[in-house]
Design goal:
The protein is 15% helix and 43% strand. With 509 residues, the protein is of the alpha+beta class. The chain folds into two domains: 226 residues; 245 residues, Roll (C8orf32 fold), CATH 3.10.620. The strands form three sheets. Strands 8-7-6-5-4-3-2-1-14-13-12-11-10-9 form a 14-stranded antiparallel β-sheet. Strands 15, 16, 17, 18, 21, 22, 23, 24 and 25 form a nine-stranded mixed β-sheet that branches. Strands 19-20 form a two-stranded parallel sheet. The two termini are 23 Å apart.
Length: 509
């Protein structure tokens, strides 16, 4: 079943780049290896290297945090690696950063940022490390500390049980600076490298609005973090990172850890036939969310019937009701009443790419411009489904990358379809939501396209999954992806997947 690009835990790969100024390494301050495991096996490793460097006459601390994970994604072997770097002053204040996320086998998102007062100026780098036109300015707090200051904070500030600390940290999972709270608990015996040890327990939490899951850390007598845990209900369950030797952490292994195909549980199976059920009424609860009525979008096919602080009741249909003919005629041949952002090219939906344009014309055929917008949308959908080879090893590639390497899952197919539609003047957006998985009797993540045709947004799913499900799919949010450089910025998705979700089937017909 197609899956969303997962927001992984501490996923960070060093990549050479030319946008960062030349520097001279002085001495190594810290090198550490960590092994990451789940309850079912090894997931990967992390490597941290901090050095004192000289750059433009200034002494800085340059820290690199690399991570590598390997697991079975929807049953297929999947490897992911990414990277984070910070340059910080000797007192820990960040002046520059760089991070990398894997988008596909051949494509990585490289974001380079420089601090300018109370702003962080981010720029996407190309494969040669040179700046591109894709940029973003985000708020910055001058007291934000770097990776080395985070790593050694409690070695320099010995914590005591009952104390709390708030540290400002740039968090790649939200692409923003967050105040991270460390609540110091008490000494306790716990399993750790070398056996059971007495360690100081520290609970780490994030602002509620970030929808990031809390962590638990354990410190040794020197204040060093030797163990870190997180409960990832969406992907793997309990994950543990422990201080390790390089030989153990980086040792090759065959992945055995599986992600969850259908992480959203259902109280009873839904009977799915082609195009059915025609109507579905569900009660959905997300653990830890006290306003579930705002978890999901509403449109012509998805309505919120009721909500309280425990759950939301949804009424779902396969598609929105057909507009009256007079309304449809009004929109034909006229500019649709949607924002320009749904027609413009952006970082992910590269509708101005020459190959994307070529494929759109190929999909429509010689007589395509004379056909209705709905027929054009259907032709694009069919073309993408025929040409893009299913592959779960792709994370979240841009449309132009999919055009050049036509493989991927729902996100790649949806991204390319959205770009092809925009290139021929059809407004489009991508939708992230949940689809029913009849093999696993639960809901899993999915991305599809919506195109604005005949006066309303129409569901266009190049994978063909939604065509088979009838009403058994839930829309979380739709995006033009304007000004989005990191897919993890999409807060509605982080919120929906930040805790266990349960679905109760009230009616299916």
């Amino acid at each position: 079943m197609p899956r969303l690009r997962a927001i992984l835990w501490l996923v960070l790969l060093a990549v050479p780049h030319a946008a960062v100024a030349q520097e001279k390494a002085d001495k190594v301050l810290r090198e550490a290896w960590y092994v990451t495991r789940t309850e079912t096996g090894k997931l990967g490793y992390s490597h941290l290297l901090a050095r004192e460097v000289q750059r433009n006459g200034q002494t800085l601390i340059h820290t690199i945090l690399d991570d590598s994970v390997s697991y079975l994604r929807s049953g297929d072997p999947f490897h992911d690696s990414s990277h984070e770097e910070t340059w910080e002053t000797l007192d820990g204040r960040v002046v520059e950063l760089l991070y990398t996320l894997t988008l596909s086998k051949k494509q990585k998102l490289r974001l380079h940022g420089k601090v300018r007062g109370k702003e962080l100026h981010l720029c996407v780098l190309d494969d040669q490390g040179q700046p591109t036109d894709f940029r973003q300015i985000i708020p910055w707090e001058p007291a934000t500390i770097g990776l080395y200051a985070q790593e050694t904070y409690f070695e320099r500030n010995r914590p005591k049980p009952g104390e709390s600390y708030v540290l400002l940290q740039f968090t790649t999972s939200v692409n923003r600076v967050l105040p991270v709270t460390y609540h110091v608990k008490d000494w306790e015996k716990t399993s750790a490298p070398g056996g059971v040890q007495e360690l100081l327990r520290v609970e780490i939490s994030y602002p509620k609005s970030s929808y990031l899951t809390p962590h638990t850390a354990w410190l040794d007598a020197s204040g060093r973090i030797v163990k870190l845990q997180e409960e990832d209900s969406t992907m793997f369950g309990l994950m543990t990172r422990e201080l390790s030797e390089q030989e153990t952490a980086a040792a090759p292994f065959e992945p055995t850890v599986r992600d969850k195909d259908a992480p959203v549980t259902v109280d009873k199976p839904i009977r799915v036939r082609w195009g059915r059920p025609l109507q579905l009424r569900l009660r959905v609860a997300r653990e830890g969310d006290d306003d579930p009525g705002t978890l999901f979008a509403q449109d012509g096919r998805q309505r919120i019937l009721a909500a309280d602080n425990q759950a939301v009741e949804l009424l779902l249909r396969p598609r929105p009701p057909r507009l009256p003919e007079v309304v449809r005629e009004f929109f034909v041949g006229r500019n649709p009443r949607v924002g320009s952002e749904y027609l413009e090219s952006n970082f992910f939906i590269r509708s101005d790419d020459p190959l994307v344009k070529q494929y759109a014309q190929e999909a429509l055929g010689e007589d395509g411009k004379d056909r209705s917008a709905m027929e054009q949308a259907r032709r694009i959908k069919a073309w993408v489904r025929r040409k893009v080879k299913p592959n779960y090893e792709i994370a979240f590639a841009t449309a132009d990358e999919v055009a050049r390497c036509p493989e991927g899952d729902c996100s790649e197919m949806g991204m390319l379809a959205a770009a092809m539609a925009r290139s021929v003047g059809i407004p489009s957006r991508v939708v992230l939501g949940l689809v029913y998985d009849w093999d696993n009797h639960g809901f899993g993540g999915h991305l599809w396209t919506e195109m604005f045709v005949d006066g309303q947004w129409q569901t266009i799913d190049p994978t063909g999954v939604i065509d088979m499900l009838g009403a058994a799919y839930i829309k979380i949010a739709a995006y033009s992806l304007k000004d989005v450089l990191n897919p993890d910025e999409l807060v509605e998705i982080r919120r929906a997947f930040s805790g266990p979700m349960r679905v109760e089937v009230l009616e299916s017909r």
